[in-house]
């Protein structure tokens, strides 16, 4: 096996070479015919030997993410319960009830206590339910069996699943059968095996008789608990019948979606289908999602996040190799035309049967496409759980901000006389009435703009109706395409026929828009005009509300910032923080045309037509029976004529359809028209309450002051929660920089498992390259994210750290020029999360050998900046740890930018055979079991100054001895400098280094005065020592990157 590399395998073009590699690696190639498949199996064996099972890595990463989510939910749950307690203590007509009336009027809440209770319950839930849906025979059940590691679900050619199957984690395999009838008890089966499940449950999971599949099963759900590590984090997989098979199977899925909180969707596509994505079936699922969202809006629950979805192009091995790019791009295009804000990364290729075959060969063989699927599942889980917390935060922030504003507006009136108060109220009411009148003018103007826009589009589109191709596609009907005449007679048939004709017109508009893009352009223009006008209204509202509250606080300032958002007046729109950047995007056209039905009002016009004589009706029905295609063609031509030449003003059918297609503008306009009056009315109620405030001023003032104080305290903690947890970016698509080749720097996708595996640093004598800088427990790497330079910091497995949420929360509050800026975190395929810092940073070990003489940062400046950074970290109850030339980072210009801030931790004892190496940088107290403290950082600082000024390695004669012996015998003052190099430094500098290394009490490290004296001494040292003799640096030697 030695000597075989991944490049050797992938570059082999001869089967003989592959067979030879297989023999050396001990890998069977049975069942494989293609050279590419053989190469992948051999590469999987190499990676298995080096990094282990990727599925196990991702399962561990998911478990760590679950711990973080649990911590976040617990923290915000405490704030919710504080708010609930505040409500219960202030619940009377003049307390929180009065504020709730105002919140309800302006649309912020409908029922404050009910919504608060819902959010408290949601924050107690750790399950994350993903519905797996897709096309019939797309391989959903097979894919899930692969993920679960055993054939739990029936998977046959054709339709397999007939009932909802819910699969969650359990230490042993258990099952439950839940029946439709509420009176029928749930059957429970514990500690079952696969043979029993196949014999007893598969016939219940799958209805083979096609006739019986036309009706719902008497079983509502079958629930499995299985020992699958990927599900340990709380993921619940729900297998469903194929979308679009029949109404009964669709109703099974629709009922489940309606009755449960769904966190995400996995939609499986039959890639070898000649037409690509089955659009009708996919839109059927989308309609279910939209219907659930409408129900959530009514119940004041969250919006579904379109990013919490994955589209799996299954059976990819059945797509011809020469057509794969075309098929994939077409699939993405079709999905993007329907699914809001779809990202290409949400669509993945997959080969279920191939992955199953590899798993049968070796459970640790995870093909690349399977690995990508697992990573997407992990990303979707993290995004969905964050989205749930963000929705609760948004609700709390909105309620607190508006409540505090209303309380402070009331309290601002306390010191006014009754006359002043009346004059103030009258003045503000007058301004509100003026604003209301102005808003109506703006709304009417915007309506005219929308109408003008739709008229422009109508004039652009009408010529398309008269083109030969369009006339043929609209008027040519086959009998099987037409509705059947039944007992409901001609009026009902005509309505159905008109619906079908209108749908054909819609399809023609879709084709025209796909080619011309006219609707998108004018819709964007209209939306921008609307946002501009709304901003003006909001500016007026802000001025009025400022006048109602003379107290300018941080809460009011935040209200100003929130009110500057064009969507703020959409009270409680339930758009998540992650969605706000994309919430202004136009709804995909096909989502409007196929799901939201813009022709509904056109068809409804038929229902209001006057009654026709029975004789005429009978005559029309007879003609339709004789020649339905002819009648359909005549009706279509009549419909086209109505589109081309509307008979009366206001009856322009085409204009009605086009207006409905401008969904974003119409939706915003409707919300403006609805919410501005509500907000004005709420402020008027607040003013009326201020007038009645004087009647019980002493009691009411104390009540409102206490309520305001309580809310402001919780709001401050909520703001801290936001900064420490919500505002932390989840960085995706991270690349790492690879070594320079042929004068060019390249990059590749980043995976932590390839770096953090202990075998990567298995040899203590290995010297990290300039690409990898590692300390004892961390590694620093440069890379890119979204085309911006970044630096990553990862904890190595040797640190035994798997969660970092407390650390991240503290790092977010650091704001000092010597601190690297934490941009966000990256969840890779191995825990713990990776820290992402702004810009490329370099360790001192990298930068010193090539330090340009013209740099503005000399050694004194660097030391001073390091000390400033350490003092700042210690002030915030953090430490740097591992303070040495390999962990202190600087910018390209040599300015210190520390990435090492962390919570104090205890030393992780390595193996008994471990050599001293870089453990020499830890203080004796830490090595002997004490928690790493501020004094330990000062110990490391002393060694760093020693190495930085002298260019020699501390404890260099002890680096190759056993660490256990070193811990027993270490005496820093006598062992650190056997050659007595300190004599080359001034007495002040040498004394400072000795004071840092002195093994006294932990809290006795150099004080500020000692440091200032030391800096003066260091400033007098010969700062050219290193430049004169750079070869003395045993740690340095790499060339500067270009």
Automatic annotation (TrEMBL):
Domain Protein kinase per the UniProt entry, residue ranges: 750-1023
Protein name per Swiss-Prot or TrEMBL: Serine/threonine-protein kinase PknL
Superkingdom as given in the UniProt entry: Eukaryota
Record SMART domains: S_TKc (SM00220)
InterPro entries reported for this sequence: Dynamin_N, Kinase-like_dom_sf, P-loop_NTPase, Prot_kinase_dom
GO molecular function: ATP binding; protein kinase activity
PANTHER family, A to Z: MITOGEN-ACTIVATED PROTEIN KINASE KINASE KINASE 7-RELATED (PTHR26392), PROTEIN KINASE DOMAIN-CONTAINING PROTEIN (PTHR26392:SF92)
């Amino acid at each position: 096996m030695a000597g075989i590399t991944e490049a050797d395998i992938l570059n082999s073009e001869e089967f003989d070479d592959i067979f030879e590699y297989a023999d050396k690696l001990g890998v069977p190639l049975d069942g494989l015919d293609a050279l590419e498949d053989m190469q992948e199996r051999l590469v999987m064996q190499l990676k298995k030997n080096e990094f282990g099972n990727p599925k196990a890595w991702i399962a561990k990463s998911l478990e760590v993410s679950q711990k973080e989510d649990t911590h976040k939910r617990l923290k915000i749950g405490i704030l919710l319960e504080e708010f609930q307690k505040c409500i219960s203590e202030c619940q009377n007509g003049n307390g929180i009830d009065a504020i709730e009336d105002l919140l309800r009027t302006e649309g912020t809440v409908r029922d404050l206590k009910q919504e608060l209770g819902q959010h408290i319950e949601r924050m107690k839930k750790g399950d994350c339910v993903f519905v797996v849906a897709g096309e019939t025979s797309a391989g959903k059940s097979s894919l899930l069996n692969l993920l679960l590691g055993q054939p739990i679900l029936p998977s046959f050619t054709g339709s397999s699943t007939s009932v909802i199957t819910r699969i969650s984690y359990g230490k042993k395999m258990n099952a439950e059968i839940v029946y439709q009838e509420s009176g029928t008890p749930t059957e429970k089966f514990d500690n079952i095996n696969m043979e029993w499940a196949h014999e007893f449950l598969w016939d219940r999971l799958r209805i083979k008789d096609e006739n019986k599949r036309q009706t719902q099963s008497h079983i509502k759900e079958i629930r499995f608990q299985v020992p699958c590590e990927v599900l340990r984090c709380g993921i619940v997989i729900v297998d469903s019948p194929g979308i679009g098979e029949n109404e009964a199977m669709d109703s099974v899925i629709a009922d489940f979606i309606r009755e449960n909180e769904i966190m995400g969707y996995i939609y499986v596509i039959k890639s070898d289908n000649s037409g690509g994505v089955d659009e009708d079936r996919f839109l059927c699922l989308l309609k279910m999602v939209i219907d659930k969202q409408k129900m959530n809006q009514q119940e004041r629950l969250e919006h579904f996040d379109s990013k919490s979805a994955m589209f799996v192009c299954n059976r990819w091995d059945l797509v011809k190799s020469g057509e794969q790019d075309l098929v994939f791009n077409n699939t993405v295009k079709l999905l993007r035309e329907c699914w809001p804000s779809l990202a290409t990364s949400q669509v993945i290729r997959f080969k279920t049967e191939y992955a199953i075959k590899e798993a049968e060969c070796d459970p640790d063989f995870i093909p690349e496409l399977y690995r990508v699927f697992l990573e997407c599942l992990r990303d979707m889980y993290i995004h969905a759980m964050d989205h749930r917390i963000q929705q609760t935060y948004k609700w709390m922030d909105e309620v607190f901000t508006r409540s505090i504003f209303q309380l402070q507006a009331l309290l601002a009136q306390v010191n006014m006389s009754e006359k002043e108060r009346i004059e103030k109220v009258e003045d503000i009411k007058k301004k509100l009435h003026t604003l209301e009148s102005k808003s109506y003018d703006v709304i009417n103007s915007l309506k005219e703009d929308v109408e003008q826009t739709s008229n422009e589009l109508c004039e652009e589109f009408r010529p398309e109706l008269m083109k030969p191709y369009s006339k043929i596609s609209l008027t040519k009907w086959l009998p099987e395409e037409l509705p059947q005449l039944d007992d409901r007679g001609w009026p009902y048939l005509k309505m159905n026929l008109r619906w079908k004709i209108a749908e054909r017109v819609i399809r023609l508009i879709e084709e025209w828009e796909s080619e011309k893009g006219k609707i998108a352009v004018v819709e964007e223009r209209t939306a921008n005009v609307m946002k501009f006008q709304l901003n003006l209204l909001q500016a007026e509202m802000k001025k009025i509300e400022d006048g109602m509250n003379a107290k300018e606080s941080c809460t009011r300032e935040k209200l100003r910032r929130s009110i500057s958002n064009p969507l703020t007046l959409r009270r409680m729109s339930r758009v998540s923080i992650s969605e706000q950047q994309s919430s202004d995007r136009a709804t995909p056209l096909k989502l409007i045309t196929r799901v939201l039905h813009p022709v509904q009002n056109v068809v409804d016009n038929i229902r209001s037509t006057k009654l026709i004589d029975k004789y005429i009706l009978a005559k029309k029905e007879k003609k339709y029976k004789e020649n339905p295609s002819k009648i359909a063609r005549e009706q279509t031509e009549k419909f086209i004529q109505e589109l081309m030449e509307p008979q009366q003003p206001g009856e322009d059918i085409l204009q009605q359809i086009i207006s409905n297609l401008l969904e974003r503008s119409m939706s915003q306009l409707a919300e403006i028209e609805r919410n501005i009056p509500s907000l004005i009315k709420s402020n008027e109620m607040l003013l009326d309450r201020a007038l009645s405030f004087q009647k019980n001023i002493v009691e009411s003032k104390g009540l409102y002051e206490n309520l305001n104080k309580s809310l402001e305290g919780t709001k401050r903690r909520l703001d801290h929660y936001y900064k420490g947890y919500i505002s932390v970016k989840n960085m995706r698509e991270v690349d790492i920089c690879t070594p320079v080749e042929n004068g060019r720097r390249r990059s590749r996708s980043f995976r932590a498992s390839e770096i953090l595996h202990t075998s990567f640093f298995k040899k203590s004598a290995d010297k990290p390259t300039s690409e990898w800088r590692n300390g004892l427990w961390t590694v620093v790497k440069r890379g890119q994210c979204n085309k911006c330079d970044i630096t990553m910091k990862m904890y190595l497995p040797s640190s035994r750290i798997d969660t970092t949420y407390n650390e991240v929360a503290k790092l977010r509050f650091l704001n000092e020029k010597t601190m690297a800026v934490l941009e966000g975190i990256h969840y890779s395929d191995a825990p713990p999360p990776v820290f992402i810092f702004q810009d490329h940073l370099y360790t001192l070990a990298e930068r010193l050998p090539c330090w340009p003489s013209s740099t503005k940062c000399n050694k004194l400046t660097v030391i001073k900046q390091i000390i400033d950074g350490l003092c700042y970290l210690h002030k915030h109850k953090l430490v740097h740890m591992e303070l040495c030339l390999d962990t202190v980072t600087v910018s390209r210009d040599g300015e210190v930018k520390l990435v090492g801030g962390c919570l104090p931790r205890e030393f992780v004892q390595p193996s008994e055979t471990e050599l001293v190496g870089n453990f020499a940088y830890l203080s004796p107290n830490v090595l002997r079991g004490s928690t790493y403290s501020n004094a330990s950082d000062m110990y490391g600082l002393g060694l760093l100054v020693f190495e930085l000024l002298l260019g020699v390695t501390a404890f260099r004669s002890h680096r190759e001895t056993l660490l256990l012996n070193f811990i027993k015998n270490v005496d820093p003052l006598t062992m650190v400098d056997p050659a007595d190099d300190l004599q080359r430094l001034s007495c002040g500098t040498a004394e400072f280094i000795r004071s840092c290394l002195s093994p006294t009490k932990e809290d006795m490290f150099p004080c500020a005065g000692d440091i200032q004296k030391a800096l003066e001494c260091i400033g007098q040292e010969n700062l050219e020592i290193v430049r004169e003799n750079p070869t003395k640096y045993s740690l340095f030697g790499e060339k500067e990157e270009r």
